[in-house]
Recover the amino acids of this structure.
């Protein structure tokens, strides 16, 4: 580490809270990024297989999105407008309706609140309780929905929950798809909700991720999700899909659920919605559920007009036809093939789907060692799962195939290095 690097890291230790996490895995100071490449201050290039935890699905600083934002700022466009009507919001809504909703025959309204995923989840749960007049929400084992009070109650990870030393109420936990192996957990949930003595209260909502990003890349089947939707309707609950990490193309289609025949009451979106890493979140809700009073749920930064600009530009560039979607699906197939070969070589298993896949390295210690070996070869990649045991690939969807292949070569080599050294130590 250079003297400059040492000096600059000292300010973080001295002034920034210890709550930071990613900087512990990647102890460099970064100052530039283009596409799927990040540069540190010394000019060293790193391939990004993290992409802001799926916030940069279109890569860093896409030239067309960047140009749209620069033009808007240069013209003194409204930067912040609360929830007032603005030109930027109007154009985003028009593009979303024309490019996303109408071609999919989807009838929803968009609600804007605070600009993070947990804000979207809080609004969704609040609305479900308001619509139904009920309190209880059902979420699932290994689910992650955020770390503010309501969303944290719906989150399963003890690592997040333990920091809150007060009651996390209003949520009952059900078993996710395949949590007990071959047992149909949807049937279990229906039985519990149908039994007046099960201890399960009539729910306001059932909230689910189609792929559990932080929970270990567990991917639910379309058949199981369809059952959960039917169970929600049967028992008078709203069906909420949290598409914050799995959506905006990550699993191959704009929404992670759109090829499953699902029709959720509410969908939460954030992360790559702005297209450029700008804070931006939204809740899609069926028009009949739009019973909010003015400002009944709000947030000072619910009018991020810069994000409206880049979000619209992303929709028009990547989703106006099927070419990008087709490309992403092909990359997802390639990723699955490469990861399966690595997993098979070491007796591990594959997780996830689309461009949201990873390898179960069984222990967090092993997965961490593999990610560290990748970083030593200039590949940024992280873990997920209850014990951080999943080595998780979340590279930009726009990554060039040559860089994609080289990054996966590094990952393969890291598995060989770590597993080889452990075999040697055992012998």
């Amino acid at each position: 580490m250079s003297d400059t690097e040492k000096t600059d890291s000292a300010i973080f230790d001295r002034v920034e809270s210890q709550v930071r996490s990613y900087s512990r895995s990647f102890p460099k100071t970064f100052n530039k990024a283009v596409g799927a490449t990040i540069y540190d201050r010394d000019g060293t290039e790193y391939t990004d297989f993290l992409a802001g935890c799926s916030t940069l699905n279109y890569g860093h600083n896409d030239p067309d999105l960047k140009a749209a934002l620069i033009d808007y700022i240069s013209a003194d466009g409204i930067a912040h407008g609360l929830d007032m009507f603005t030109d930027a919001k109007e154009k985003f809504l028009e593009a979303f309706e024309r490019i996303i909703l109408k071609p999919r025959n989807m009838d929803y309204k968009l609600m804007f609140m605070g600009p993070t995923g947990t804000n979207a989840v809080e609004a969704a749960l609040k609305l479900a309780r308001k619509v139904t007049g009920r309190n209880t929400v059902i979420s699932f084992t290994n689910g992650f929905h955020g770390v503010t009070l309501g969303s944290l109650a719906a989150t399963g990870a003890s690592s997040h929950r333990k920091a809150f030393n007060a009651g996390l109420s209003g949520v009952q936990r059900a078993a996710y798809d395949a949590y007990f192996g071959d047992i149909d957990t949807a049937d279990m949930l229906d039985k519990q909700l149908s039994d007046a003595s099960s201890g399960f209260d009539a729910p306001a909502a059932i909230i689910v991720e189609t792929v559990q990003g932080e929970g270990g890349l567990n991917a639910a089947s379309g058949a199981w999700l369809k059952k959960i939707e039917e169970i929600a309707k049967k028992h008078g609950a709203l069906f909420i899909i949290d598409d914050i990490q799995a959506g905006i193309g990550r699993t191959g289609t704009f929404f992670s659920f759109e090829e499953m025949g699902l029709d959720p009451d509410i969908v939460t979106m954030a992360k790559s919605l702005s297209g450029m890493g700008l804070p931006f979140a939204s809740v899609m809700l069926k028009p009949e559920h739009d019973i909010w009073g003015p400002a009944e749920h709000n947030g000072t930064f619910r009018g991020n007009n810069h994000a409206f600009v880049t979000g619209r530009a992303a929709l028009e560039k990547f989703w106006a036809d099927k070419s990008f979607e087709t490309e992403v699906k092909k990359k997802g197939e390639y990723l699955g093939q490469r990861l399966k070969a690595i997993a098979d070589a070491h007796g591990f298993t594959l997780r996830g789907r689309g461009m949201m896949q990873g390898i179960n390295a069984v222990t967090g210690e092993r997965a961490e060692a593999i990610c560290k070996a990748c970083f030593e070869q200039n590949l940024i990649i992280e873990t997920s799962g209850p014990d951080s045991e999943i080595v998780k690939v979340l590279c930009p969807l726009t990554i060039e195939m040559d860089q994609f292949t080289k990054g996966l070569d590094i990952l393969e080599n890291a598995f060989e290095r770590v597993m080889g050294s452990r075999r040697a130590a055992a012998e």
Remarks:
- The first helix runs from residue 3 to 15.
- Confidence is low (pLDDT under 50) at residues 1-7.
- Residues 248 and 254 are 4 Å apart (CA to CA).
